[in-house]
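=== RUN LOG ===
request id: a7f3
mode: sequence -> structure
chains: 1
length: 182
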Amino acid sequence: MNKKKRAVFLDRDGVINVEVNYLSNPDDFELIEGTAEALQILKQKKYLLIVITNQAGIARGYFSKNRLEEIHDKMRALFEESGVLLDDIFYCPHHPHFTGECSCRKPKPGMILVAQQKFDINLQESYMIGDTLKDIKTGKNAGCKTVLVLTGYGSKERDKIDKIKPDYICKNLLEFAENIKC
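=== RESULT ===
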């Protein structure tokens, strides 16, 4: 019997890299301290590593899909230097005011559900990690465990968690990775 895989779904901006409003230049991409080490730990614990990110800057005309790919290429290269390979990256290029509604823009679970099908993932044994309540809601909508990290917007969002409560709150991605129970 084939056992379903477990995944850690990662928001990008504010979780993996330093928050830059509408990051559009690969030169401005900077990993948050401890991120590569955290991903190494999660890989050792046999989790798939999948980035789930809204990129409305495309719909707004701030940058192109090609530019986004350049940013993701830089991210992958930085991780590869540390021996970490991401399993996949899913992004939503839409914004309801510019492109209409879609099924992939967080907090809708579309990107996670596509990843689930592609990789045969057990969502109940997987985590969605983000720095906003929109990320937490996405994870809950998909049936994942949720983690709010206090990097990026997370420290501001922590005060608003009375309606959407994450399963865990961690200082950063590394704290989560070091304390997760396989």
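=== NOTES ===
The two ends are 21 Å apart (CA to CA).
Residues 6-179 form a domain with the Rossmann fold fold (CATH 3.40.50.1000).
=== END ===
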